[in-house]
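Notebook entry, structure prediction.
Reason for the run: the old model in the group folder had no record of what sequence produced it. Starting over properly, with the input documented here first.
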Amino acid sequence: MSKETILVVEDEEDIQELLRFNLSREGYQVETAGTGEEALRRVKSRPDLMVLDLMLPGIDGLEVCRLVRAEKELRTVPILMLTAKGEEADVVAGLELGADDYLTKPFSPRVLLARIKALLRRSHPPDAQNDATLKAQGLAIDQSRREVTLEGAPLVLTTGEFDLLFFLARRPGRVYTRQQIMDGLHGQEYAVTERAVDVQIAGLRKKMGAAGNLIQTVRGVGYRFTES
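New structure, fully documented this time:
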């Protein structure tokens, strides 16, 4: 059975070919786009994941990310953004627009593949085993289906937002530092700025509305999920 389809959006031909080669060798179906406009056309086929360079001619990667997340049927497509600058502002802007993960250039193909596999694994529900649903103040988090409802209405979250919410909610009352959150979600030695974690928390709270108060800030430490 063929593996998932990955859309690679990269205008530099040598990097695009490098990505295509490594992903194809792993068995993935690879589609490519060299501009933001082409990416927006190709993403309509709903690939399983998009690798998105931020520095694109025409419509840039940040705008592509924003437009993709604005489409209801595309909101859950995992987005791994690539940035040449590696600056906090780029990372924060991408996360604010709904990107799930990021990697700075130059990058190791091995690390890229690991990030992609992790994102795909998290975005696809497990075959069966854990049917537990976490509930608090009208919020219901179904781990097996990776679905969240608020007062019975679906809450559309990105892969990263779901993982963050479930990570905090599964141990209510426990306080996590920002680094512990990133280690728990991505593994150790994951380069991230504290601001990036704060941005993802802020975006999640915004989507949760009044229920956003379930995620509490512990000043000088980090965050915790409370049931009350």
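Summary: The longest strand covers residues 5-9.
The old model has been moved to the deprecated folder.
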